[in-house]
Design a protein that fits this description.
Blueprint (H helix, E strand, L loop, with lengths): L2 E2 L4 H4 L12 E5 L2 E6 L2 E2 L8 H10 L7 E6 L8 E4 L2 E6 L3 H4 L14 E6 L2 H17 L5 E12 L5 H8 L6 E10 L2 E9 L2 E6 L2 E5 L1 E6 L4 H13 L1 H18 L3 E5 L4 E5 L3 E6 L1 E5 L6 H8 L7 E2 L1 H12 L9 E6 L4 E5 L3 E5 L2 E10 L5 H18 L14
Antiparallel strand pairs: 1-7, 2-3, 2-10, 3-7, 4-6, 5-6, 5-20, 8-9, 9-19, 9-23, 10-11, 11-22, 12-13, 12-21, 13-18, 14-17, 15-18, 16-17, 20-21, 22-23
């Protein structure tokens, strides 16, 4: 189904300079391409009902298209970053080129020179995983902690976000996205990535969630690739990690649904670089006052990006990670005035500012986890973004990252 706002870009920008192409919000995936142009931020305060603030913004008929797009930060105590576009469209099919009105994706001819800095080093990350495991032994109620690390990548020229988005959109199993972020130090910023995970969607009274937890790296060798998938399915550690996420989402949705279940059970899910355990959750709301944005705020952060119990895991993350996640492990998506919309977990992404990109990747730590294996999992999860930037993924393990 195609939806386009009544206000065109020409009407929205009459008498003004045309909005820069990178002011667009874009989602490419799930069989459709969502593009929101002429995005303008709306004021959002932390500690105040997000539903009320979003409702007030959408009630303003002069504000633009009847939809909000944007991102939720990982830290739910921080304000959401919501945008009201002048125009928006949902069209079937995947088309990154359509996102910026370009007939084709143009790639740079020259290869940039990159400098890479790990935040923290791989050795420090492994030590943090070991410390999280030690705390779980001392505190049995602490069942899972998701720890992440970052890579800061600086090139000798500005990063082409259009080309980056197009490369990420080549993986049909992931939803590629580009979200304009608040400027910092006068410089524009973008959140660009390709996530495999649907946090929640709402269409009428139907609510969907497709959490992923438990991962294994894919291989170019068919035999090794099959063995990796089979090993993931057989892994008691990964199955336990996955159940923590599914149980938490079911428990949070249950009070608001008249029907709720996992009709297909847990299945193996693949992207271009990873195998995951995934469970599709389907429900029917009896509380139709809940919009897709309300549901996203209710579920976020899930144990897939934080841990269980949520507050205890979040405290450990704050202490052991040593870096600010920002919008990584938050959510990106859209919400119409009628409450319909979709929000995706902001994974396999980077914050882009000029010639710099800050990449994040994490792994779920549960009893039975191995610090070396968890470090390898983060390296594998960096692969999609590193390849899209034209970098050898081995830098996640080389001297710069250690």
């Amino acid at each position: 189904m195609m939806k386009t706002s009544e206000m065109t870009d020409r009407e929205a920008t009459a008498g003004e300079a045309p909005a820069a192409a990178l002011s667009s919000f874009v989602l490419v995936g799930a069989g459709e391409t969502v593009v929101a142009n002429g995005c303008r931020p709306i004021p959002v305060a932390a500690g105040v009902s997000l539903a009320r603030q979003a409702g007030d913004a959408l009630a303003d008929a002069r504000g633009g298209a009847p939809v909000l797009v944007g991102a939720l930060p990982y830290d739910h105590a921080r304000p959401a970053h919501l945008l009201r576009p002048a125009s928006w469209s949902r069209q079937p099919g995947r088309s990154a080129a359509r996102a910026f009105g370009t007939p084709a994706l143009v790639r740079a001819d020259a290869t940039p020179h990159w400098q890479v800095t790990a935040e923290p080093s791989l050795a420090i990350y492994r030590a943090a995983v070991a410390e999280a495991l030690a705390r779980m032994e001392r505190q049995p109620a602490l069942r899972k902690v998701v720890l992440s690390r970052a890579l800061r990548v600086a090139g000798d020229r500005p990063i082409d976000a259009r080309a980056l988005l197009g490369r990420l959109a080549e993986d049909p199993a992931a939803t590629a996205f580009c979200v304009p972020l608040p400027p910092q130090g006068g410089a524009g910023r973008l959140l660009v990535g390709a996530t495999p995970e649907l946090l929640v969607s709402r269409q009428g009274d139907v609510v969907l969630s497709h959490p992923l937890a438990g991962s294994a790296r894919r291989s170019a060798d068919p035999r090794l690739d099959r063995e990796a998938a089979e090993g993931l399915v057989a892994s008691a550690k990964d199955q336990r990690e996955h159940r923590e996420v599914v149980t938490a989402i079911l428990d949070q949705l249950a009070p608001h649904c008249r029907e709720l279940g996992t009709p297909e059970g847990t299945q193996i899910v693949s992207t271009a670089s990873m195998w995951h355990l995934g469970t599709r959750i389907v429900g029917r709301l009896h509380d139709m006052t809940l919009s897709s944005l309300d549901l996203a705020a209710l579920l976020h952060p899930t144990p897939a990006v934080c841990g269980t119990p949520r507050d205890a895991a979040a405290a450990v993350i704050t202490e052991l990670e040593g870096h600010d996640r920002g919008f990584y492990a938050g959510a990106v998506g859209w919400c119409e005035a009628n409450g319909d919309g979709a929000w995706y977990v902001a994974l396999r992404c980077a914050e882009i500012a000029g010639n710099e990109a800050r990449l994040h990747a994490g792994a779920g730590v549960v009893p039975g986890s191995d610090p070396v294996a968890e470090g390898e999992e983060t390296a594998a999860k960096f692969a999609a973004m590193l390849r899209a930037l034209g970098l050898d993924e081995a830098i996640a393990f080389d001297g710069a990252a250690r």
